[in-house]
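hiii, so i know i said id send this last week but things got crazy w the move. better late than never?? heres the sequnce for the chain we talked about at the cafe, plus the structure i predicted for it. fair warning i was half asleep when i ran it
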Amino acid sequence: VQLMESGGGSVQSGGSLRLSCAPSGFTYTPPCMGWFRQAPGQGREGVASIKNDGSTTYGDSVKGRFTISLDNAKNTLYLQMNRLKPEDTAMYYCAASRFARAWYDDDYHYWGQGTQVTVSS
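okay and structure toks below
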């Protein structure tokens, strides 16, 4: 099982980026997938999660700016990030859970290697 993130990069404050995550090796569709981020010297923070029924959950710091989506036809998870701020700078990780509902990092069983997002002021 692998999760491969892409789409990170450097952007100025107010800009946008779209992260992608392509799962492979799964014999089933994970019931819940999510995005986390970790800034230097800080713990891992839940950013957004999406269940197979399409319902979504967002961290307070990204509500209204970020959108998580799942394209089942392309088997790809996305995180659209708009109005980026310097405090969004972090390594972003894609994760998949065997649970029907997941938010905390302990709820997730599979992790990608991460993609760096840097937002300059």
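btw The chain has a mean pLDDT of 96. thought thatd interest u
miss u guys!!
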